[in-house]
């Protein structure tokens, strides 16, 4: 049975927004370490930004549930992000020159305060806009279907492909405009492209939303909450015991996905630095832009998502429970870091390794992502009490916020050869092998524990299966 056309409008809207976000993100770390910050300073800013991006959906989901509705929240969020991307463009326009000189020393006479102010303002609007956009577009995907429609998991997989189509092409396009310490202003064109794409997507959404965003019985979806007395009475019904159990499951699973995303989001900072400084990117005399490595997960996701979607039902009675799929995702992520940790065992700062090590890591990470992320979104949609749907998606993303903050903090442990050994809970990190083992151990332990408590979680959610 065909999916509703509204799914494809949401697909295009999310794809465009993710193109905008990942295009900017592919350049952000490189822009900062080329002109504004040291590696550790860039890691702090990156971690704070990406964590706040996933905190604000908690507020955006609540406002949509109570006051604005999904549509207004999505459009408002998209417009705020478009302005934020334009401020990033202006930041790179006004950057005078790099604060670094050729030997890596910092030139204190360089004043890039205007560029810094514009960058912080742009990132602030991106954080706020994402808060309104992210939880509400996910909620609308589920609302297109009846509560027990078996097409929901498939719909979320299709929607998730939209995320990754955007993430695939963004670094390829925006990455063509990488700058460096000699020309940091060149980054502005990538930021401008990101601004244009999100602006166009909001125009399409504005024109087509009434036509396609309708429920199975023809009602307009995503409108502001009704003010009728009978509808308000429906919203004030107390939560049932099952509702509380279901929300508890969401909270428990959210704790485990923190381990996944804290490792996965190294792609934006430490793995970007690894790709730039310690990966051989030269092919037949041509040097591949560093940011293009960030297209690899998206490429693998687009290629593998149909396979994964086909594979689960084919397993029949052997198909893992959704909670087990999340545990499998964590285990595969652990293996990806285990693989690269031995690939770089004898590598010292300044040495470059084959691009196949990073490619292999991204391949297995993507398999793990497909076992965890779309299944997690579908679970949250099924378990959330209807009147708190946006809020619970916001809580799910709150776990991602914590993950991204941890990702930034953990990336400061990257052994760059300049600051000596670093320590995490007494564990010494003096080389890349030891750095990557942190993620092997953390995600591996989380996977084992989640497998162990799966029977308990199944009992708490049995009435929605």
General description of the model:
The chain has 465 residues and is mostly helical. The chain has one domain (5-213, 240-464): MFS general substrate transporter like domains (Growth Hormone, Chain: A, Up-down Bundle), CATH 1.20.1250. The protein is built from 15 helices and four strands. The chain has helices at 5-35, 39-53, 56-68, 70-94, 113-143, 152-174, 188-212, 229-235, 241-264, 270-278, 295-314, 322-343, 355-383, 389-411, 432-460; strands spanning 282-283, 286-287, 422-424, 427-429. The strands form two sheets. A two-stranded antiparallel sheet has the order 1-2. Helix 6 (152-174) packs antiparallel against helix 13 (355-383), helix 9 (241-264) runs parallel beside helix 12 and helix 12 (322-343) runs antiparallel to helix 13 (355-383). The longest helix has 31 residues, at 5-35. The chain is globular, with a radius of gyration of 22 Å.
Number of domain units: 1
Query: What class do helices, strands and sheet pairing give?
Result: mainly alpha
The dominant shape is: globular
Report on the biggest sheet: 2 strands, antiparallel
Q: What is the level 1 CATH name? A: Mainly Alpha
Write the layout of secondary structure elements.
Layout: H1 5-35, H2 39-53, H3 56-68, H4 70-94, H5 113-143, H6 152-174, H7 188-212, H8 229-235, H9 241-264, H10 270-278, E1 282-283, E2 286-287, H11 295-314, H12 322-343, H13 355-383, H14 389-411, E3 422-424, E4 427-429, H15 432-460
Antiparallel strand pairs: 1-2, 3-4
Helix pairs in contact: 1-2, 1-4, 1-6, 1-7, 2-5, 2-14, 3-4, 3-5, 3-14, 4-5, 4-7, 5-14, 6-11, 6-13, 9-12, 9-13, 9-14, 9-15, 11-13, 12-13, 12-15
């Amino acid at each position: 049975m065909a999916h509703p056309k509204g799914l494809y409008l949401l697909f295009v809207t999310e794809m465009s927004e993710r193109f905008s976000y990942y295009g900017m993100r592919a350049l952000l770390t490189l822009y900062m370490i080329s002109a504004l910050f040291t590696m550790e300073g860039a890691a702090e800013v990156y971690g704070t930004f990406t964590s706040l991006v996933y905190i604000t959906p908690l507020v955006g989901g609540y406002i949509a549930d109570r006051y604005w509705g999904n549509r207004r929240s999505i459009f408002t969020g998209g417009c705020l992000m478009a302005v934020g991307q334009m401020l990033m463009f202006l930041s790179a326009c006004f950057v005078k020159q790099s604060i670094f000189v050729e030997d890596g020393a910092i030139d204190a006479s360089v004043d890039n305060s205007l560029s810094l102010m514009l960058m912080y303002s742009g990132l602030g609007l991106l954080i706020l806009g994402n808060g309104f956009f992210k939880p509400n577009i996910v909620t609308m995907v589920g609302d297109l279907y009846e509560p027990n429609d078996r097409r929901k998991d498939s719909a979320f997989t299709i929607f998730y492909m939209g995320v990754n189509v955007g993430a695939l092409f963004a670094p390829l396009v925006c990455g063509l405009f990488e700058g460096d310490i000699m020309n940091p202003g060149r980054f502005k064109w990538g930021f401008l492209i990101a601004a244009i794409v999100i602006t166009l997507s909001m125009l399409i959404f504005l024109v087509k939303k009434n036509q396609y965003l309708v429920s199975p019985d023809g009602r307009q979806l995503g409108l502001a909450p009704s003010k009728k007395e009978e509808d308000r009475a429906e919203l004030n019904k107390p939560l049932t015991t099952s509702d509380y159990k279901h929300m508890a499951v969401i909270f428990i699973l959210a704790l485990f996905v923190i381990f996944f995303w804290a490792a996965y989001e190294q792609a934006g900072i430490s793995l970007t630095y690894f790709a730039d400084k310690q990966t051989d990117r030269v092919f037949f005399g041509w040097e591949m832009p560093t940011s293009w490595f960030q297209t690899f997960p998206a490429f693998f996701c687009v290629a593998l998502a149909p396979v994964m979607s086909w594979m689960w039902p084919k397993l029949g009675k052997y198909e893992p429970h959704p909670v087990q799929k999340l545990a499998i995702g964590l285990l595969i992520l652990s293996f990806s870091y285990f693989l690269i940790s031995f690939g770089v065992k004898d590598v010292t700062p300044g040495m470059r390794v084959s691009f196949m090590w990073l490619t292999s890591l991204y391949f297995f990470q993507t398999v793990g992502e497909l076992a965890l992320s779309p299944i997690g979104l579908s679970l949250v949609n099924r378990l959330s009490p209807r009147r708190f749907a946006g809020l619970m998606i916001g809580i799910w993303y709150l776990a991602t916020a914590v993950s991204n903050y941890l990702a930034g903090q953990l990336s400061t442990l990257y052994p760059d050869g300049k600051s000596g050994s670093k320590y995490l809970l007494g564990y010494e990190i003096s080389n890349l092998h030891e750095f990557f083992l942190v993620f092997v151990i953390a995600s591996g332990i989380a996977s084992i524990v989640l497998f162990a408590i799966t029977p308990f979680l199944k009992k708490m959610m049995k009435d929605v299966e």
